[in-house]
Amino acid sequence: MASATPFYSRAGLNVECYDPRTAVDVGRSSVRGDAAWYRRLARRTGGPVLEGACGNGRVAWEIAKAGIEVVGFDLSPPMLRAAEAKRASMPPRARGKATFVRGDLRTFDLGRRRFPLAVVPFRSFQCLLTPEDQRACLLRFRRHLRPGGRLVLDLFDPVYRYLSPTEPRVFARRPAVRHPARGTAVGVETRRIGIDPVRQVMDLLWTFREKGPRGRTIRVEREILRMRWSFRHEMRHLFGLTGLEVEAEYSDFRGGAPAYGKEQVWVLRRR
Questions:
Q1: What is the DSSP string of 163-223?
Q2: Is the same domain home to 148 and 169?
Q3: How far apart are CA 90 and CA 217, in angstroms?
């Protein structure tokens, strides 16, 4: 059995198949339409845009294709290389609009640069595992916003039955996707392998299994994703502590009112 590594820490199947895998996940969830929503918000707000935990540039390049400057940072070198590798395939006007740098949500520092809009898409904020880390992140973003600037966070809204330590381990098998370079089938399975209700932290084991033309398994890789869930009023308290006020709150990227078990889409303004 292949040993499990932290999420996105290596250049493997997870990074290589991120786009087709995420297209399936986003299309089937309340995150559907998020990249286009961020692009529209960037157009209304104007650039430049700061994106935290930008990954392989899924959202950043969507903003850049609208002709808006975007600076994305991420902690994973393999994901940053994947984001940079997309540059040559982008429309000419987008290629010079995106910049990718390495940075940690808790400690990033872009000097004196200030942004009218910052975003942390697709639940990446939940990889911060303590309230102290979450607060440090929000203070960093506040520092990098212009007065009155906006910060957008997307979290999943906790579903209680998935959070009980007495429930059987939650298991999900996602539809297989095609490897973008080799055309092979890559299956993805997720299993909850640990949960700490006191700290509000869960560990998810992701198994990526690549199969050749005859259905023979040719590669298996396992990665662990650790996330912290947060409740709505808990987040409001954090915002108040960090000088951010709630301008809008949605349950999806179609303007849905707050609802249990969907998304927490927060549009925040720097006070």
A1: S-TTSPPPEEEEEEEE-TTT--EEEEEEEEEEEETTTTEEEEEEEEEEE-TTS-EEEEEEE
A2: no
A3: 33
- Both 153 and 257 in one domain: the answer is yes
Looking at the fold, whether 153 and 252 belong to one and the same domain comes out as: yes
Domain that holds residue 219: 160-228
Kindly report the pTM of this predicted structure.
Answer: 0.96
Q: Are strands 4-6 and 171-178 parallel, antiparallel or unpaired?
A: unpaired
| Tokens 């720097």, residue located | 270
Same domain membership, residue 111 and residue 189: no
- Residue-wise pLDDT for 16-34, tens only, equals 999 999 999 888 889 999 9
- Residues with Cβ within 8 Å of 245's Cβ and at least 6 positions away in sequence, in order, are 239, 268, 269, 271
Q: Tell me the Cα Rg of the chain.
A: 18
Beta pairing partners, 154: 265
Is 100 found in the same domain as 86? yes
DSSP state at residue 213: T
Q: Work out how many domains the chain is built from and give that number.
A: 2
pLDDT digits (tens, 9 = 90+) for 113-144: 999 999 999 999 999 999 999 999 999 999 99
Interatomic CA distance for residues 172 and 177, integer angstroms: 15
Residue 250's CATH number: 3.40.50.150
Edge-to-edge strand list for the sheet holding 171-178: 4-6, 217-228, 201-211, 185-196, 171-178
| Residues 239, 142: Cα–Cα separation, whole Å | 10
Looking at the fold, whether 126 and 238 belong to one and the same domain comes out as yes
Instruction: Flag whether pLDDT at 184 surpasses 60.
Output: yes
Q: What percentage of the chain carries pLDDT values higher than 90?
A: 90
Q: How far is the C-alpha of 142 from the C-alpha of 146, rounded, in Å?
A: 8
Q: Which two tokens stand for residue 69?
A: 């400057």
Q: Within this chain, do residues 59 and 93 fall inside the same structural domain, yes or no?
A: yes
